[in-house]
Each structure stands twice: as C-alpha cells, then as structure tokens.
Design a protein that fits this description.
mainly alpha; 5 helices
C-alpha cells in the first residue's frame, strides 16, 4: 500500500472515530434527558419543601408532593413539564430515588437523591444536580442563620 493511501485510510478512520465518539455522546445524552430533568425537578421540590418546613426532610413522596398543593408550588417551573403538573411530579418516583431517612443536619454524609436504581445520575444539567442543590440551600440557610 502506498504512503498516500495509508495516510488517507488513517485520516478517514480518525474522522470516523471522532464522529462516532461525538455521535455516541449525543445519543447517550438524549437517552438520559428525561432523567436529568427528573433529577432537577426533584431537587427543586426538595428545596421548596425544606424552605416551607424549616429545613425538615420529607418522609415520603406523598409528603414531598404536598408542595404542589401550595400556591408557590403550583407556580414552580418544572423543567420536565409545565408549572403545576402534578401528574408529572408524581411520575418522578419512577425515575428518582430519595432516601427519606436522610438527615439534613449531616448534609455532607451522603447523597440522598439518586437514580431509581440507586446509582448517581450520569447526566445532569449544570447547576441542577439535586444533591448539590440541597447542600447549597442548607449552606445558604446556615449562613443566613449565623448572620442573625
């Protein structure tokens, strides 16, 4: 095989490999978008619940979803659906697992929100990882309380 042909084949294979890599990344992300929105929305619901209940942690999905029955909850933008969509909010329990026994006073101990199978979310929107959202809320509350 000539040098020119070898270089051409190598270049074509490299371009194909790069395209396949990026194509796989796009498809992988596409498969996980609903889950990423579910993580974001669950994080928002948990933070809203804690804001409304003096940073107490909900005891179940039913307890958490009481947020949707409030005026501020019904107006809360859910990124996987429209504001106030309680059917969507109820569907989150199939996508997201919440440790209902988690203690917010020990926020650095574990991640109370995971995928339904208990693993970390492979894809999340920037600034929308639910455990980080909860910790940021608790940190802000602690900082606000120490300034009083």
């Amino acid at each position: 095989m000539s040098l020119r042909r070898t270089i051409t084949v190598a270049l074509v294979l490299a371009i194909f490999g790069v395209a396949a890599y990026f194509g796989y990344g796009v498809i992988y992300t596409w498969w996980h978008i609903r889950e990423a929105y579910g993580a974001w929305d669950t994080g928002q619901l948990l933070v809203k619940y804690m804001q409304m209940h003096q940073d107490r942690w909900p005891s179940s999905w039913d307890d958490l979803l009481t947020v949707m029955n409030t005026e501020s909850g019904s107006e809360m933008k859910l990124f996987g659906a429209s504001a106030g969509d309680t059917n969507y909010a109820r569907s989150l329990r199939a996508k997201v697992s919440v440790n209902w026994k988690w203690d917010p006073t020990h926020a650095d101990d574990a991640s109370p929100v995971t995928r339904a199978d208990g693993t970390k979310f492979p894809i999340v929107w920037q600034g929308a990882e639910p455990n980080e959202m909860i910790r940021a809320h608790l940190k802000a509350e602690m900082s606000a309380n120490s300034n009083r």
